[in-house]
Backbone:
């Protein structure tokens, strides 16, 4: 049976073919460190996306609605959030974690996944392509939330480094369990997966 979270890889691979590099803010970094400084037990800085928003599909086509990260706290589930920079480097960085995550086949009843794609510096054609690709994935995988960040608000609020991606794991209360900006080592991947598993034990 196919995993409900295949879009983590499928979406990234598709974006890599068309999207160019984007710039990043660095407010989340501490003293020039590469890692995001979100600490375990903290709540995420509130991210309010109004330009772009969460994708849904209706009989009338693609619908976008404003998305706010506070919604993650209200779901009462473990959350895995992937914020994807629209470039090839970010795609390569994300794959090892995505593979390990998919292998575990976590139940959508216990865990929610959110993919946020930053399209701030992309051309109009690419923005349309991304929206259509997300809509197709959403139609197949209702349990995954897909969000477009047209203004790169997540970069300013969560502070990823340039040409990167971030994985953030939240517990059922919306508190940070794990946060990493950029490529994960094998040990970091094991830690992140173990933290998720421990929430269900």
Residues:
């Amino acid at each position: 049976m196919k995993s409900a979270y295949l879009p983590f890889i499928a979406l990234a691979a598709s974006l890599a073919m068309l999207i160019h590099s984007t710039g990043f803010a660095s407010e989340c970094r501490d003293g020039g460190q590469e890692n995001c400084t979100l600490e375990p037990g903290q709540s995420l800085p509130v991210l309010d996306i109004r330009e772009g928003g969460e994708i849904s599909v209706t009989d009338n086509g693609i619908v976008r609605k404003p998305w706010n990260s506070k919604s993650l706290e209200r779901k009462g589930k473990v959350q895995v959030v992937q914020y994807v920079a629209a470039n090839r480097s970010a795609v390569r960085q994300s794959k090892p974690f995505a593979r390990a995550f998919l292998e575990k086949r976590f139940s959508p009843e216990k865990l929610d996944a959110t993919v946020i794609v930053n399209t701030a510096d992309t051309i109009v054609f690419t923005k349309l392509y991304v929206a259509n690709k997300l809509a197709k994935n959403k139609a197949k995988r209702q349990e995954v939330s897909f969000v477009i960040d047209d203004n790169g608000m997540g970069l300013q609020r969560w502070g990823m480094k340039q040409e990167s991606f971030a994985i953030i794991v939240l517990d059922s209360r919306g508190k940070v369990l794990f946060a990493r900006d950029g490529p994960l080592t094998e040990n970091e991947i094991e830690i992140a997966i173990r933290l998720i598993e421990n929430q269900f034990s």
Observations:
- The first strand starts at residue 48 and ends at 58.
- The chain is about 35% helix and 25% strand.
- The CA atoms of residues 29 and 37 lie 6 Å apart.
